[in-house]
Amino acid sequence: MENCIFCKIIKGEIPCSKVYEDDKVLAFNDINPEAPVHVLIVPKTHVQSVMDINADDCQLISHVFYVASKIAEELKISEKGFRIVNNVGENGGQTVSHIHFHLLGGRLLQWPPG
Ligand code: AMP
Ligand code: ZN
Q1: pLDDT tens track for 17-58
Q2: How many Cα neighbours within 13 Å face the side chain of 36?
Q3: Domains in the chain and their CATH numbers?
């Protein structure tokens, strides 16, 4: 999608600090980390948000969670625990309109979020 920052990162037009890549997803470090580990897992196809997922995307979304578990293991946060966050729309705090999942860890995370 034109003018989508995450599509540009996926195409290599904007650099990122890559953590993981396969044919379906790209994962990279968040530019403004909120925790010692803050990775964004981004499907390569431009889906705006959870509200735009269709039946064909279901495998892709479960793949994101599988990848999250592998990255958590690799970054050694799986034993102590971590959080996977997906923000939707204005009230959800979504600032980039390309679906993505935050993988946060490396410190005790508060609950409930603000
Ligand atoms: P959200 O607010 O849930 O839409 O999350 C968007 C996230 O993307 C924020 O945590 C930003 O810090 C992050 N972000 C924005 N631009 C970049 C970029 N160029 N590289 C890495 N992370 C970014
Ligand atoms: Zn996009």
Answers
A1: 999 999 999 999 999 999 999 999 999 999 999 999 999 999
A2: 11
A3: 5-105 (3.30.428.10)
